[in-house]
Amino acid sequence: MAQPVVGRGVPNTVRLALLRGRAWVSGRWVEAASGKTFPVLNPANGELIAEVPDMGVSDTEEAIEAAHKAQRQWAALPCKERAKGLGRWYDAIMANKEELAKLITVEAGKVLRESRGEVDYGASFISWNAEEAKRIEGEVLSSLVPGRRTLLVSQPVGVAALVTPWNFPVAMITRKAGPALAAGCAVVVKPSEETPFSALAIAELAHEAGIPPGVFNVVTSSRDSTPSVGTTLASSDLVRKLSFTGSTTVGKLLMAQCASTVKKVSLELGGNAPLLIFNSADIDQAVAGAMASKFRNTGQTCICTNRILVQRGVHDEFVEKLVSAVSKLVQGNPFDESSQQGPLINEAAAQKVENHVNDAVEKGAELLVGGARAEELGSLFFRPSVAVGVSGEMRVTCEETFGPLAAVMTFDDEEEGITMANATPFGLAGYFYSGDPGQIWRVSEALETGMVGVNETMITSENTIFGGMKQSGLGKEGGRYGLREYLETKFVCMGGIAERPVD
């Protein structure tokens, strides 16, 4: 078994039974061809967890070839057999829920209570798609020409490359791999260099569940090697689908690289989510929603509220209650059951939040709570913060903060609020609180986002779509629409069919 040497970054009280130190290709634990490795650090204390292979172009090509060889046999399996395999994978994940949650916490810094929730969420995509595998359908169309029959057949697109981020290191893999495997596609997973161990643990559990060698592969690479690995996946003729979750900058680059082979692409990119609070809103409900959205995973979620837009009539009440709630958040060791806020993922992330705070204050915003690092806890812990008097020229309104800074702006009427909410090139998620039925319809239709939460901010689940518009990406994940992303629809015209004689 590929057990790595464990560093000081793993607390003495934590046993990581699923920690694996090699990549997973063609049903085997493998090293990089170069022999190189790279360190993975615990963001809570900066200490080494362990090292994993730093794989390059030749290693990636080997993984693609393994998936290509496994593809035909996996696609040929009856859908019911693929469903059984996914069902066993789901069972294995849930049987190891606590171990997976600990891995997420140690490498991503997510508080343990949220890591457990992520395992549940991630596993739900496996169980959902296990059922959907049996519901892949085609169509028989009415023939317009005598002696012909017209069919539409759904078939797997082929080998899929899945490039995933660090903030949900289990769920972002399963949300892609669940529908891919259900459709009959073999996959090559490229996890973030920050969080490879969750991906390798998922691979171990897939193997235990009987997923055949080559159907699920994991390639690990350092920050320096990742661009060449990504280019290899994007430009390979054997890869017919690429799904990426990450920054808009990298997404555009991968999309351009995929153009050379005209492969299918799904992109879930950056966001700048607005949360509007109208005068008619239930303010206590709105505060609870803002807290859940803004401070989940210490503000490091793709659909995290980035701009809080509050109508002038309820601004003061909302801010007072928001500051009170933020001041009560418990920040500390992510393995502590009482902790609600953990560290940011790395120094660049902490520096970005710091820069957004400083820029806002310099341009006239007022900090009501937080605004600095909690150095006594560790260099990557940033205090939950609230700033008011925020305006459109500040970086926090133009860039995705990805940290625990709640930036509050003010608007006067519905039209102005909608205009401010849509004043961004991004359109992943948007939220608003209102007690006016007419306004609910108008604003839902007017927001330029792929997902809208009305009087609710915890909106995602396995049976519905996840995806944005504008520069927040292409394609959808989740539900039956997510499965379609891994299918091709083939048109079959059957001729020479004699018509039934008429008596």
From TrEMBL:
Major subcellular site: mitochondrion
Species assigned in the record: Geodia barretti (Barrett's horny sponge)
Record carries keyword Mitochondrion: yes
Pfam families per the UniProt record, alphabetical: Aldedh (PF00171)
Annotated Aldehyde dehydrogenase domain residues: 29-492
Family: Belongs to the aldehyde dehydrogenase family.
UniProtKB keywords: Mitochondrion, NAD, Oxidoreductase
Its biological purpose: Catalyzes one step in the degradation of the inhibitory neurotransmitter gamma-aminobutyric acid (GABA).
Protein name from the UniProt record: Succinate-semialdehyde dehydrogenase
GO CC terms in record: mitochondrion
GO biological process: one example: gamma-aminobutyric acid catabolic process
Catalytic activity from the UniProt record: succinate semialdehyde + NAD(+) + H2O = succinate + NADH + 2 H(+)
Active site: 268
Superkingdom classification of source: Eukaryota
Pathway: Amino-acid degradation; 4-aminobutanoate degradation
